[in-house]
Amino acid sequence: MTTTMLPIDQKSPAAGANTLNVLVAVASAGTKYTDPFDGSLATSLQIFNTGTVTGVWIIQVSSKVSPVLNTDTDWTTLTLGGSITQPAGAASNDYIDLSSLGSRWARGKYTHTSGAGNVEAWAHTKG
Fold first, then answer.
1. Can you tell me the distance from the alpha carbon of 60 to that of 75, in angstroms, rounded to the nearest whole number?
2. Which of 26-30, 59-63, 86-90 has the weakest average pLDDT?
3. Residue 89 region, left (φ>0) first, then alpha (ψ -120 to 50), else beta?
4. Which pLDDT value is given to residue 26?
5. In this structure, is the dihedral angle defined by the CA atoms of residues 48, 51, 57 and 61, taken in order, positive or negative?
6. What are the beta bridge partners of residue 117?
7. Residue 121 burial (CB < 10 Å; 0-12/13-18/19+)?
8. Which of 21, 48, 63, 95 could form a disulfide with 120 if both were Cys (CB 3.0 to 4.6 A apart)?
9. What string of DSSP letters covers the chain?
10. Closest by Cα among 34, 28, 39, 29 to 9
11. Residue range 64-95, pLDDT digits in tens
12. Is the Cβ–Cβ distance between 56 and 23 less than 8 Å?
């Protein structure tokens, strides 16, 4: 199993907005983390899965100033009010409202189990 940090490119489509994006091709089992984003701001996360990927997306939060990034050591899995549409061998997407987290940091975590394709996450924060 491999663990990979997914770099996020800063994009600014509108003044006062901060949009983060990550796109990664997956073909073997492993864990992928997005870079952390500010969990204290109003945030939404949209995830896309293409191809035949099968795996699990979760949201993690941390209030540490400098959490360890490449493990789950300093992170807690967030229990969401609804469920995330998980990739199950076909293209899918989901929108997650994270507007009331209040944590210092939040991030997406994807654990890939089979198939091949792309996983992509877009986080938008404002505040």
1. 6
2. 26-30
3. left
4. 72
5. negative
6. 26
7. buried
8. 48
9. -EEEEE--EEE-SSTT-EEEEEEEEE-SSEEEEEPPEETTSEEEEEEEE-TT-EEEEEEEEE-SSS--SSSSTT-EE---SS-----BSS-EEEEEE-TT---SEEEEEEEEEE--EEEEEEEEEE-
10. 34
11. 988 988 889 999 998 876 778 888 999 998 99
12. no
Q: Tokens standing for 121?
A: 């996450």
In one letter, which amino acid is 104? R
Rounded CA separation 13/16 (Å): 9
